[in-house]
């Protein structure tokens, strides 16, 4: 039926995303030694795509690291919702940044089963998960890493599974949705955002997604996703950064900060880094690049004792 066809297409967005992430890492835009472990057939993407994935990687890395450094030495939880084959756990673990952090990854069981199989077949990944890891239904868990299969549209089941794997409601927690809840429909994604606000007392909800769907580049992207069978379902309603902010406030979060990728690029990427990136491959589509950056945003909603990982940035 059409619902399961749509779910298959949504799961397929992970395959596309991981190949693109891998492309820009292989070229040296962003350093991640682990993405390649999850890609069977690497492919080189066009420069504009590489730059898009580069700025996304930088923005997400920036908020994760800000959160971890703000809570250095204390117990924290990271929950990647719709984690796909993302390798953030392995990268941060290998950098020694997850000493006091438990990292949860949730995705459809079909996706987590594949990821779990890859981890189990890879000595280096398995070592980073930890020697005391064990296989669970559709996943793998260890004291520091929990890969769990669940449909995010069923928050009750999600909650039970996370509890079963030791999640703590009062521990400072960062929940990440990197290009995920936008595929879920307004009602289901609002339910996740509200569930997170009600469940965790000290938390940050970080969302990376598209905004301004009807202007120029945004309209082109909307069409592109529609053709792939994975329309971005939320952005018609939460088009602007202000609408995004209001959304989280309405759903139980206390404060929200957000930035589009132009602002992030202009204010938080140092000059030397910009020059380094310019020297990676021939690139002359600067207009398209800035247009694209204006259509992607990172939104951080927070509550309790947690501070925004984007504290220097405002709307
Ligand atoms: N966050 C990862 C990243 O940025 O590399 C993957 C992004 S991919 C575009 C979207 C992911 O969200 C897919 O892995 C998909 O299976 C997952 N996803 C979407 N809807 C979901 C749902 N209802 N339940 C669980 N996972 C979901």
Description:
The chain is an alpha/beta fold and 315 residues long. The chain has a single domain (57-303), classed as Rossmann fold (3-Layer(aba) Sandwich), CATH 3.40.50.150. Helices cover 46% and strands 17% of the residues. The protein has helices at 2-26, 47-70, 88-94, 109-120, 123-129, 155-164, 186-199, 216-227, 241-250, 261-268, 271-278, 286-294; strands spanning 76-81, 101-107, 134-136, 139-141, 145-149, 173-178, 203-210, 255-260, 296-303. It has a 9-stranded mixed beta sheet, sandwiched between helices. A hairpin with a 2-residue loop joins strand 3 (134-136) and strand 4. Helix 1 crosses helix 2 (47-70), helix 2 (47-70) packs across helix 12 and helix 10 (261-268) packs across helix 12 (286-294). The radius of gyration is 18 Å and the shape is globular. The termini are far apart. Bound molecules: S-adenosylmethionine (SAM). It comes from Branchiostoma belcheri (Amphioxus). One of its GO terms (molecular function) is tRNA methyltransferase activity.
């Amino acid at each position: 039926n059409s619902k399961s066809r749509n779910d298959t297409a949504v799961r397929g967005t992970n395959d596309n995303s991981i190949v693109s992430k891998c492309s820009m890492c292989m070229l040296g835009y962003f350093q991640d030694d682990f993405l390649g472990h999850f890609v069977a057939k690497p492919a080189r993407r066009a420069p504009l795509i590489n730059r898009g994935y580069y700025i996304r990687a930088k923005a997400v890395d920036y908020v994760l690291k800000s959160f971890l450094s703000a809570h250095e030495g204390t117990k924290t939880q990271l929950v990647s919702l719709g984690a796909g084959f993302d390798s953030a756990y392995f990268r941060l673990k290998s950098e020694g940044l997850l000493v006091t952090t438990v990292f949860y990854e949730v995705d459809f069981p079909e996706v987590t089963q594949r990821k779990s199989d890859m981890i189990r077949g890879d000595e280096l990944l398995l070592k980073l998960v930890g020697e005391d890891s064990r296989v669970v239904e559709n996943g793998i868990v260890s004291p520091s890493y929990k890969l769990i299969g669940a449909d995010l549209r069923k928050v009750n089941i999600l909650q039970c599974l996370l509890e079963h794997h030791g999640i703590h409601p009062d521990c400072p927690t960062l929940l990440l949705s990197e290009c995920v809840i936008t595929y879920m429909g307004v009602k289901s994604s609002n339910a996740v955002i509200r569930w997170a606000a009600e469940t965790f007392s000290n938390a940050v909800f970080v969302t990376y997604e598209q905004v301004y769907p009807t202007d120029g580049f945004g309209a082109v992207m909307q069409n592109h996703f529609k053709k792939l069978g994975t329309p971005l379902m939320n952005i018609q309603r939460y088009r602007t950064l202000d609408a995004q902010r209001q959304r989280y406030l309405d759903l139980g979060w206390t404060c929200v900060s957000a930035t589009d990728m132009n602002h992030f690029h202009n204010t938080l990427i140092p000059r030397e880094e910009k020059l380094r990136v310019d020297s990676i491959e021939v690139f002359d589509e600067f207009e398209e690049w800035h247009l694209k950056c204006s259509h992607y945003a990172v939104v951080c909603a927070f509550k309790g004792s947690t501070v925004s990982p984007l504290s220097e940035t405002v709307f």
